[in-house]
Amino acid sequence: MDFSSFLTSLGTSFVIFLVLMFLFTWLSRRPSNHVIYYPNRIMRGMDPYEGIRLTRNPFTWIKEAVSSTEADVIRHSGVDAAVYFVFLSTALGILVFSGILLLPVLLPIAYTAKNKIDANETTSEGTFNELDKLSMGHIAQKSDRLWAFVAATYWVSFVTYYLLWRSYRHVSNMRAEALMSPEVRNEQFAALVRDIPAPEKGQSINEQVDSYFKAIYPDTYYKAMVITNNKVVNKIYAELEGYRKKLARAEVIYAESKGTANPEGTRPTTRAGFMELIGKKVDALEYYDKKIRELVPKLESEQKIALKDKQQSAAVVFFNNRVIAAAAGQCLHDTMLDKWTVMDAPEARQLLWTNLSKNFYERLIRQYVVYFVVFLTIFFYMIPIGLISALTTLANLEKLVPFLKPVLEQTTIRTILGAYLPQIALIIFLALLPSFLLFLSKAEGIPSQSHAERAASGKYYYFSVLNIFIGVTVGHTLFDSFKAIEDNPNSVFDVLAASLPGSATFFLTFVALKFFVGYGLELSRIVPLIIFHLKKKYLCKTEDELKEAWAPGDLNYGTRFPDDMLVLTIVLCYSVIAPVILLFGVLYFGLGWLVLRNQVLKVYVPSYQTYGRMWPHMYNRVAVSLLLYQATMVGYFGAKEFIYTPVLIPLPILSLLFIYFCTIKYYRFFQSTALDVACRELKETPNMEGVFRSYVACSLSTEKTAEVIQFVDDLAHVTRPGSAV
Amino acid sequence: MDFSSFLTSLGTSFVIFLVLMFLFTWLSRRPSNHVIYYPNRIMRGMDPYEGIRLTRNPFTWIKEAVSSTEADVIRHSGVDAAVYFVFLSTALGILVFSGILLLPVLLPIAYTAKNKIDANETTSEGTFNELDKLSMGHIAQKSDRLWAFVAATYWVSFVTYYLLWRSYRHVSNMRAEALMSPEVRNEQFAALVRDIPAPEKGQSINEQVDSYFKAIYPDTYYKAMVITNNKVVNKIYAELEGYRKKLARAEVIYAESKGTANPEGTRPTTRAGFMELIGKKVDALEYYDKKIRELVPKLESEQKIALKDKQQSAAVVFFNNRVIAAAAGQCLHDTMLDKWTVMDAPEARQLLWTNLSKNFYERLIRQYVVYFVVFLTIFFYMIPIGLISALTTLANLEKLVPFLKPVLEQTTIRTILGAYLPQIALIIFLALLPSFLLFLSKAEGIPSQSHAERAASGKYYYFSVLNIFIGVTVGHTLFDSFKAIEDNPNSVFDVLAASLPGSATFFLTFVALKFFVGYGLELSRIVPLIIFHLKKKYLCKTEDELKEAWAPGDLNYGTRFPDDMLVLTIVLCYSVIAPVILLFGVLYFGLGWLVLRNQVLKVYVPSYQTYGRMWPHMYNRVAVSLLLYQATMVGYFGAKEFIYTPVLIPLPILSLLFIYFCTIKYYRFFQSTALDVACRELKETPNMEGVFRSYVACSLSTEKTAEVIQFVDDLAHVTRPGSAV
C-alpha cells in the first residue's frame, strides 16, 4: 500500500463517517424514529428531548455528550457503563499525554536523522516514504538519537502507571459509593449457597438450609429459596406465555377488522394441528383461550411438584441485615470448602438458574475442560475453517447443491466465490465467536450472567490479542523461526521486534477503518432502524411486540472491550516506534468516547448491574499491554544494536511491581463487599418478603400465573360478552 | 565403610540407647527427680504416679505410651501435640505398609538376580556386599525383574496418598472438635486489627476503633485494646520484677541465716553502684524495698502515658459472639486491603507485641527481604563458615589469643584442633541456625509466636532437605556437571539418580545414629537433669527460682519436624532402591513415637495452642517428599536403561492432582474458623471484661503492679515489724 492509497482509504472512511453522522442528525429528529434514538429516555418515562435544546446543528449531540457528567451516566446506565467510560478516558489519557511529548520531540528527531534506510527495514516495505521518515526506523543503528526514544519509552510507561493508578482508585470509590447507597437493593440482602450436602432422611433441603443458617445467624437469617429443577415448569410456562401473546395478537387483529364496513368484524382463525400449520380450522380466540385454561392447572400442579420434590443442592438465603449478608459471602461455613459454599448473591435477573446446582468438583472439572477447549480454539481455529473451505470448493458445492449449478457457472460469480469462500468462512466464524465463547463460559458452571460475560470477554481478549496482533505481525515468521527460538528463547523478542515495523501500515488502516466506519454505524443505528421499521410494518400487532422490536438492548461492553484493547495494544506497541499512530489512537478513543456517551445516555439500557466488577479485568489487560509494549521496545532497541538497551530492563520489573501492588491494594474489594461499605444506613427497613419474592423464578411465581388468568378473563368479557360470568 | 564396621556402629548406637533407657528407669523413680521426669503432671496438679502402676520393669513406660489414647494427648498437651503424633503415625504407617509388601517381594528378587555388579555401581563402593545384593543395584540393566520395582514404586505412592488423605481428614475433624468446644476461649472472642489509618484530629485511636467497629457490629462489638508502644514501660517493669525477685531471694537468705546459733540472722548486703558490683555496701532488704517503692509510681505514670499517648495503629477488638469474631477475621472491612486489616486473634500469650503495629507495606517488604536472606543462607552458608575457619587457623589463633599459645603448642591438641576447627565452626552454625531462622521469621512482622515458629520450621526444612540431602547425595557432582545440566535440564534427575546409591550407606548410619542416640538422650533427659541439680544446689534460693530451673518447656515440634522430614525423605527416596532402609525408617518413627508419647504425657508443657495449624505444612512437605521420591525413581529407572520408564510418568502428575485437591478441600479451614464450628453452644456466657483483661500486657496491668506492692508490704511486715504501718 503506498501513501496515496492509504490517504484514499482514510479519506473514504472519513467521508462515510460524515455521511452517517448527517444521516443520524436527520433521522433522529423524526418522531417515528425516537424509539430507536432515545429508547433509554423513553423507557425511563422521560421526554426524548428533555433538557435538550432543539437545533438543526448536526453537532449538538457532541455538545451534549461532552457536557454530561459521570453522575449522568450512572443515573442513565449505571455504574458499569461509567466504569467503561473510565477505561475509555484512561486509554485516551494515556495516548494524549504520551502524544503531547512524543509527537513534537520524536518526529523532528526521526525526520532529521538523514539516514538512508533499506527498503526491507521500513514500515511500508519502501513505498511509504513520508511516513517512514517520521518513525524510529529512520534512525541509524547505534545512533545517539536513540536516547530520546529511550526517554520516550519511560515517559509512556510512567503516564500509564499514573493514570491507571488514579483510575483504579476512582473506580473503587465509585463502586463504594454505589454499594453504600441507602436504597434497598435486593441482592445486598441475599447470599448464594451452593454444594449443600444431601439432607438427612425425612428432611427437605429447605428445612436443612433453614436449620443450618438459623444456628449460625439466629437473629439475622430470614429464609431461603431453594433452587429447583424447573425444566418441566419452564416448558409449560413458555407455552402458556406463547398462547397469551397469540391471544393478544388475535384480539388486535379482530379489533382491527371491525371497520365501518364490517362492524361485527371477522374473527381470526388458526389451525389446531402441528405448529398451527395443519389440522382443521378453528376460531383463534376461542382456541387460545381454551389452551390457556387447560395449561394453567397443569402449570400449577407442576409448580407444586417442583417446589416440593425437585429441590436441588443450591439455595439463595436472605438476611435482614446488609452487613451480615456481605460477611456471609466471604466466610467459610463448613470445615470442608466443597460443602456449603457461600458467595455474594448476584441480582435475581442475572442468575444462571441451571448452573447453580452444579457441584464443586463438577465446576472445577468443567472449568479446566473449557480452558482446554478455548486453548484449542485460540491456537488451532484455522484448521476447521481451512477444512470447511476446502470441502466447500466450487466443485463440491456444485455436487452438493446441484440447483445452484447455473448460478455457479457464471464466470464473475465463480471468481468472486473462489476468492472469497475461505474469507467468508472466517467471517462467519468470527461473527459466531463471541456467542460461542459465552456458551463456553456458561458451561463452566458460573452462577451469574455478568460473570459469564466477563469470562467470555476475557477469552475473546486472548483470542484477539494472540491471533490478530501477534498472528499478523509475526505471522509465518514465528513458525519458520520456531527452531531458532527453541535454541535461544530470548530471540522471541527479536523476532517480534523485527516484524513489527512491516505491519505498521496494515494496522494504521485497520484502526482508521475501525473507528470511522464502526462508530459511524454505531451512532446512526442504521441497521436497528431498518429492522425496526420492517418489523413495525409487517410483523408487530400488539404494543408488546412493538416494544420488543425497538428494545435497545445492552451496551455490551463485554465484546466492545476486547476490540478496544486490541487497538490500545497496537497503538501502545507502536507509540515510540512510529509515534504518528498515537494520533489515530487518540481519534479512535476520542470518537468512541463521544459516540458511546451519546448511546449510553440515550439508547442502551443495561440489563444488569455489577457495580464495576469488570474493572480489575480492564486494569489487568491494560497493564499486560504495557508489559507487551515494554518487551517489544527492549527487543526493538536490541535490533537497533543499541548497546544501552539494558537501561530498559527496569521497566518490565517496575510494571510487575506496579501490577502486584495495585492488585493487592484494590482487587479484594471487587471480589466482595467491604463491611464498612455495607454498614451504611438504609433509607427504609427492607421489606423482606419483597426481597424474597424478587428471586422467585417467573415460572414458579403464583402471581404471574394469576396475571395470565386475569388477562384471559378480561379478554373473554370483551370478545364474548355473553359467554363469560 | 564395610559391613562389619557398619554393624559395629549400629551395635554401639543400640547399646548407648539401652544404657540410656535403663538410666531413665532408674533415675525417674527417685522422688527428687520427679520434677524432671513428670513436670507436666506436676504442673497440672496431678500426682506423678497417678494412674500408673509402679513396677521395676524398665518397659513400663512403653506400655503406658502404647495404651494412651489421642484424647489423653489432647488433654495433657493439646491438639498441636496430637497433630504431631498424627504426622508420626502417618510416616510410620507409610513405611510399615510399604515394607510389608516391599521387603518380602523385592529382596528375594534382587538377591536372586545373579548379576555381577561393578564396584562403582553398588551402594557401598564395593565393600558392602551383603547389603548390596538386596538392592536394586543388583538387578541387571533392562532386566524384566525391574517390573517388580515399578509396581513397588506405585504401591508406595498409593499407600502415601491413602494415609495422607485419611490423616488430613482426621486432623481437620480434630481441629473442628477443639474449636467447637463449649469452653470459653478468650481468643475466640477477639480479632486482631492492623493498619488502622491515622485518626482525625482530636480523636484517639481507641475512639476511632470504637466508632468504626460499633458502626459495623452494633450489637456484638464489645471494646478494643489498642496496641501501645511499651518500650519504656517494659523496661521499668523488668527492673521492678528484677528487684522483686532479688528481694525475695534476700529474704530467703536472711531467713536461712536465722539458725539456732544466730537467732537474729545476718541481714544480707549488696552494693549500691553499677550492676551492684561496686559502690558502698548497703542492707539488701532495705535497698531493694526502697528501689521498688521508687519504681512503682514511676511505672504507674509511664503506664498512663503509654495508654494515652503511645497508641499505635493496631488493636485487639472483642466481640461478645464467637460467630461474629470468626467472621470478622475473614471479611474485608475497608475498601482498601491495606487499611483496617482484620484477622483472627492469636492467643494473648503468643502475641508478638512489637510486630503488631508494623504496617502492610512494611510487612510485605520485610517478608521479601527475609526470603532473600534465607535464600542466601541456604545456598551460601558455607562461605562465611569457610572464612571463619580460615581466619581462625592455629597460626592466627596464636596471634590473637597469645595466652593460649602454650596449650596450642602441644602436638595432640594441635592435630585435633587443626582437623576439627572447620567442623566446630559448622557445628556452632548449625546449633545457632534454628534461633537465627526464628529471629528472621519474627523480623517478617508476623503477629504471633506460633506463626513465627511455623515459618522458621519451614525455612529449616528447606535448609536441611536442600543442603543435607541433595548436598550430600549429589555433592560436588552437581557443580561439576552444572554445564551438562544447563545444556539438557532433564539430566538433573540422572545426576541425582546416579549419585543416590553411593550415599545409601552414609544415610543408613546417619539414620541409625539419629534414632538410637537422639531418642535415648531425649528419653533419659540427662542434660536437663544435670543442669537442674546444679542450679538447685548452687543458684536457686526461692521457690520461683526452683520452678524456673525445672520448667520443662515446649515439645518444640517446629524444630523436630524438619529433622523427621529429612529422615522420611531419605527413607522414601531409597525405599524401592534399597528396601532394607525401610526397617531403619520404621525403627526411627516407631521409637520416636514411643519416646515422644512418653515425653508429651509426662514432661513437656505446651506454651501455646494453634489447634493444628501446623498440619497443612506437614502435609505439604510429606507430599513434596513423595514427589521427590517419584522424580528420583524416574531418573533411576532411566539410569537402568529400562525402556518402560515412561509408565512412571503418571505418578508425579497424580501427586500434583492429589496435592491440589487436598489443599482445595481442606486447607481453608486451617486458615480461618468455619462459622458452622464457631456457632456451637457455649457452657457459659463469656465474661467479656475477663476476656479483655487477658490481653492486657503484664507491664500495663494495674493488677500486676498492685501485686508487687502487696508483696513488698507483706515482706516489710515480716522483716521490719516495727517500721511498717
TrEMBL record, chains A, B:
GO molecular function: calcium-activated cation channel activity
Subcellular location: Membrane
Domain CSC1/OSCA1-like N-terminal transmembrane: 5-166
Keyword Protein transport attributed: no
InterPro entries per record: Csc1-like, CSC1/OSCA1-like_7TM, CSC1/OSCA1-like_cyt, CSC1/OSCA1-like_N
Domain CSC1/OSCA1-like cytosolic stretches: 188-355
Gene Ontology cellular component terms for the protein in this record: plasma membrane
Keyword tags: Calcium, Ion channel, Ion transport, Membrane, Transmembrane, Transmembrane helix, Transport
Entry membrane topology: Multi-pass membrane protein
Domain of life of the native organism: Eukaryota
Transmembrane annotation, as ranges: 6-27, 82-107, 146-165, 368-397, 417-440, 460-479, 491-511, 565-596, 643-662
Pfam family, one: RSN1_7TM
UniProt keyword Chloroplast present: no
Start and end residues of each CSC1/OSCA1-like 7TM region domain: 366-637
Protein family: Belongs to the CSC1 (TC 1.A.17) family.
PANTHER family: CSC1-LIKE PROTEIN ERD4, PROBABLE MEMBRANE PROTEIN DUF221-RELATED
Protein known as: CSC1-like protein ERD4
Organism (species): Salvia splendens
Species lineage: Eukaryota, Viridiplantae, Streptophyta, Embryophyta, Tracheophyta
